[in-house]
Amino acid sequence: MTIRPLILFFALLFCASVTFSQVPCYDYLTQENHPRLFIKDADIKVMRRQIANGTNPYLESLHNQMMKTADKKGMSTDSLSFDPVHATVTLLSTTRLALLRLVSDAYAFRFTKDRAYLKHVEMDIHTVCDKMAYWDSKYDLERAEVSLGMAIAYDWLYKQLKPATRQRMLDFFQTEIFDKLENAKFYQMTNNWNLVINCSISMAALSTYEQWPEQAKNLIEKSAQSAPIAMKAIYAPDGASPEGPGYWNYATNFVSAYMMALKDCLGTDFGLSESEGFNKALLYRAFSINGAGLYYNYADCNTRANISTGAWYCALRFSDPSLLSWEVSMLDKDKYVADRTLFLAIASAYRLGRFTPKAPQGQVFRAGGEVPVAILRRGWGSEDAYLGIKGGMDKGGHAHMDQGSFVFDADGVRWVAEYPHEAYENYRRILKKLDDKASLFSYSQDSWRWKLFAYNPRQHSTLTIKDELLDVSGFAKVLSAEEKDGILSASVDLSEVYFGKLKHYTRTVSITRDDALEVTDQFEIGAEDLELRWSFVSMAKPSLTPEGILLKNKNKDKTRLLQAEGTVLQYQVWPNDPALYDSPTGAYEKKQKGYYIAGYTFSAKAGETIKLVTTLKRQ
After folding, report:
1. Distance between CA atoms of 111 and 92, rounded to whole angstroms?
2. pTM of the predicted model as reported, rounded to 2 decimal places
């Protein structure tokens, strides 16, 4: 053994010895030790063999999808471009595309040695360096996404990039990333931004460490001190994110890459993967998707579930791939193509080796925290009944005004739904027309956010008083979630949500033995008479009948009947067109096709105690 490998051997041995005390070892971060992020050169050789001989089929599929990504997206002849003056897309979409192109082409070059990929990476690197200052980023997240791509490209292609290109990248990291993010606000944030940006700035510091050891070390350790506050807010105590399944995925993909790189390069992830609730995060992920592939899409979340590269890391970190059945089922559908963090799934699948995911088990999931949720499911098949309900406050990031709202699926139909997530830029343009000072991300009681159709409580499965808002500060606690005698049920205390006008309010939602939905609302009316509305959104078309509200799915081959008892009430179907409502934003908002609003109204006297039982059962 020569002197240099011997020194490296003892350095790594020392790093391993201090891992358990979470003390980082920086001795590995030398000029000779590139590539060092996620996939080393020695890994490439083993991966090639596994792919060639079919011993790791999941790795093979992910690798093939990365190559498709490089050929379809990475090698695009379009130059990365963004015109801040006449933009029709966001800068964030451009920096995300840069991340995708840089990493996929760098990966493809490492596997094929085809210099066309290398040439394309260098072209994109120079575009980013040329344009970043002109683009004039207003959000730290935009810098973070492109920084991750640049960091991986710098590390993976360190020996092949032209010296002038490497120097331009170093200048970029110093002026556009380190200088502008070193004292940014994200360090104190508790949402996904914290984890995404801490990941990206640390990747840049890890990949370029030998150029400025003291500064890089300070940045890495500053992020390691910042990230735990977001880990606690997002995952404690039970793995569920207050920002919903979509932003859980975003945060988890980046923080998983962050933790893997820290452990590989420094021998420790600073204890981040041991954060409270993180070991349950993959269970939450599994429960947040119904058997047909739809999210329980509370908060700002799309309806159809997407893949999660962070889920692969969670399975690796906790040596339990049993909950990866959804991710594995997406492999044959090429759903990983064009995912910008696909490198993380590849690195995790390589280390996991061959495995057989088990069919998920369990019927009940309950999570506490800032936004407690309960999820109930009869089974894990595409037509099994599925029910999710949330509590919490509406003051958290990406919240809707929807305490006590729920979704319900059965027979392959989403009978009670949430509206799909709308592009933020569309909403920003609407608010700008009405009030230059309006913020989409203000969660105060009088925020413009609640005037938007999809955020207002009327467009959720909630009980509302006339057209009044709910109390954004009122905390709704999940009281219970259980299976008993074949009935799955969860209860939420909504007593704080209605400014005292409804007292002692408990909502219990159940999947009955015959897979009907049953909702029991019990409350006491306060000091004044009230007009109330019990409403829900559905992906099945409603119509009024003498017996109740008949719902038919779009194929008209499945029906359910909604009926309620407990007071004198009037069934109703409301229009799904924002322009027909009293909100000033309605004239500019688009109608969501395939969604409907129905329910019933009733009157209640001051001091009256009411128990409503609403059922939705097969016809």
Report:
1. 29
2. 0.94
- For 416-427, what is the mean pLDDT? 93
Contact, 455 vs 470, CB < 8 A? Answer: no
For residue 78, with 0-12 CB atoms within 10 Å meaning exposed, 13-18 middle and 19 or more buried, which class applies? exposed
Measured CA distances, 12 to 15, 267, 551 (Å): 5, 8, 64
Residue 376 phi, psi (nearest 5): -120, 140
pLDDT of 301-318, one tens digit each? 999 999 999 999 999 999
549-584 pLDDT, tens digit per residue, is: 999 999 989 999 999 999 999 999 999 999 999 899
Domains of the chain with CATH codes: 364-618 (2.70.98.70)
Token pair 């098949």 in the structure block, residue: 381
Q: DSSP states of 49-97 as a string?
A: HHHHHTS-HHHHHHHHHHHHHIIIIIT-SSPP---SSS-SS-HHHHHHH
Tokens of 2: 């020569």
3 state DSSP class of 518: strand
Q: Which two tokens stand for residue 261?
A: 């790189």
Which 8-state DSSP code applies to residue 595? Answer: -
Nearest to 271 by CA among 539, 19, 551: 19
* Predicted local distance difference test score (pLDDT) of residue 467: 85
pLDDT of 189: 95
Give the Cα separation of 33 and 159 in Å (integer).
10
Who's near 59: CB < 8 A, 6+ residues apart?
47, 50, 51, 346, 349, 350
Among residues 351, 280, 273, which one has the least CA distance to residue 312?
351
SS (H, E, C) 370-393: CCCEEEEECCCCCCCCEEEEECEC
How far is 344 from 313, CA to CA, in rounded Å?
7
